[in-house]
Amino acid sequence: MFWEKKLGSWVDNIRGRAALPLRLELWNGQQLDFGQHTPHVTVRVPHASALTYLLTPSLFNLGQAYVEGKIEVEGRVNEIISVGNALARYTLKQEGKFARIARSFHHTRKIDEEAIRYHYDVSNEFYSMWLDKNMVYSCAYFEHGDEDLDTAQLKKIDHILTKIRLQPGQTLLDIGCGWGALVIRAAEKYGARCVGITLSQNQCDLARERVARAGLSDRVDIRLEDYRDAGGTYDRITSVGMFEHVGARNLPLYFSRMRELLADDGVAMNHGITTTDPRDGETAYGGGEFIAKYVFPQGELHHIGTVLRTMQEGGLEALDVENLRRHYAKTCSAWADNFETNAERIKPLVDAKRFRIWRVYLAGCAYAFMQDWISLYQILCTKAGRDVSSLPWSRRYMYDA
After folding, report:
1. Spatial CA neighbour of 261 closest among 383, 162, 169, 167
2. Could you list the residue range(s) of the whole structural domain that residue 363 is in?
3. Are residues 139 and 327 in contact, defined by beta-carbon separation less than 8 angstroms?
4. Do residue 141 and residue 261 come from a single domain?
5. Range in 22-36, 142-156, 370-384 with the lowest mean pLDDT
6. How many domains is the chain built from?
7. Coiled-coil region(s) at which residues (predicted)?
8. Residues 139, 177, 332, 365: which is the catalytic one?
9. How many Å separate Cα 33 from the centre of its chain?
């Protein structure tokens, strides 16, 4: 049969390039091993129609086949991700259709709100199953590399608040406040008066509950609000894991809004994921296409060069830039491990498709950060054109505190 010849040729081609710990189990009982040793990953193909996903094994095709139930996969998720990437690398070319292409989406308040709610309003209980105890859904900071996730997330928050030199009585705006961990810490430890904004109703509700339980309702205000609608003037502004949703066309607007909301002598921090492609392309082999369809609708990543340029166009001067790529690889690995550990408790909380989406997404992100396909930067900034002679002359204050 035609498919037998084509499948055999594909398997032989990959075997000739690498011994993968993979076994294919076909609907007719046939088994095909890609290596000589016991396979770590088994892919079951229940029907010949599913072979189209395998014979062109882009990360989008493989991911779609898995989450849509076209194939069944057994194995540890990190090994599944590694094997999937190997299949793509040994079969496909990185140029053309599977290149790191740059996508641009149309962003409006309504579209952005729907995209945010799709991702974040799964359920608070779902996220609590694999995040740290404070539910911080962004890159942790492993100061020494051996911290547990709870400690590293708290250190990340303190690292940010120390960088912006937050002082008692100052006002802080947190754009994309999540479940409120940063503003609660800023009020409790640093004595700030805080406003946190989010487009997720679930996040807003739980953040308000947490603020009330902490006795901070007089110092922390959580609002369901778009950054374009925020008002007021703030001594300090933080944005953690938010600007990935803004869109390339809106970056100058986003940074100009940050400038408008910042006091003349204020300091802001933007903490977010970037692509490592200088042309603002997404991850290769169709990985970005999978994320756009199943995980982050409307999400766009930008190269650090683009971020710094559009920040300047928005009227902000970058004072300090720190790359935390390996910290995010370690963070995502911890999330993926937690997800696997709590899998049986997570499954009743979501449908089977969403469970599979998040399972491969978390492990896939860890792989992408480790491969330097994506990165994470913290950028400290202030209003452009101002006298900055009063600022610290070195970075020592970020660590001595």
Report:
1. 383
2. 109-400
3. yes
4. yes
5. 22-36
6. 2
7. none
8. 365
9. 34
